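We treat protein structure as text, and this decision shapes the records that our systems exchange. We quote a single record here, exactly as it is kept in our systems:
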Amino acid sequence: MTVKRRTNLLWGLIALGSGVFAVANALGYIPAGILDIALRSLPALLIAVGLSFILRDRVPLSSIFSLAAAGALVVVVVSSAYSARVDQVRTDKRIDIDQPIDVQIALLRIRLETNATDVELLTASDGSRRAAGEFVGSAASDIEVIYTAEGNAAALTLRERGMDSIPPFDALGRGTLRLELPPALPLDIDFVGDNGAVTFNLSGASLERLNLTAARGNVVVTLPDYAPQLSARGESLGAITVGSGDLTLFVPASVAGRFELNRGGSGIEPVYDANAYLYLVGDVLEARGIDTAVAVVRYTLNVGRGQIRIQTLG
């Protein structure tokens, strides 16, 4: 009597995949992050094997069902591990920033690009002519600092970079960046952040232009008591864009602002002082007495899913 030999497709796939993975890892082709995910997925594979034996004679296509269940468990495990670490503030790496600004420079352009980092930008209290601060973050993050000068203008770029490959979960986390800028030097600031709280306290700064884009996180900006010298009166000085979060804008009483609002149809009404601002047709907030004001600023505020607050200082 011939006995038909039964094989298990799931065991074969797991054995084949494990062998290929082990060889690739031995040759150095597997990033540390992928290896971390694989090790965290082992319990799910064991569950899949157990399910395949239990369901083999009871459920059609039991191997495919077991693989699907294992895949779903892997997604849950990986998502849970990522969520538990991505918002943790990390202090594994500290990078000092200290960039002197040449005496002949009459305009400093600042370009900031960050990932999962809380950013604080403020004016140096000692009046020094340098950009100084500190980045603190995970071992998987780094800050590239580039300074170039041409004629009477200079550009300072700070760009956060992650690891080229997928980092292990233990290397993930939120960073912080604090940067102080010289008060007496005209500034053109351009910021792009992916995720994190943003605080720009520019009191005392000679702010000429500001473009700020924060994909996720609340944004607080304090404008200086300053009339831009390098832009025509009434010219737009930039845009503040918040993808997911609230925007709070502090404006000195001596500065007349005109703010064009783009709320993306959210229906969230702006909060402002009706004694200081007029709400105009076209979703515009304009300071009372703007025609006779000495210091006038004009910005576009793009906040599609959060609250816009404009508060008067002084």
About this structure: The two ends are 99 Å apart (CA to CA).
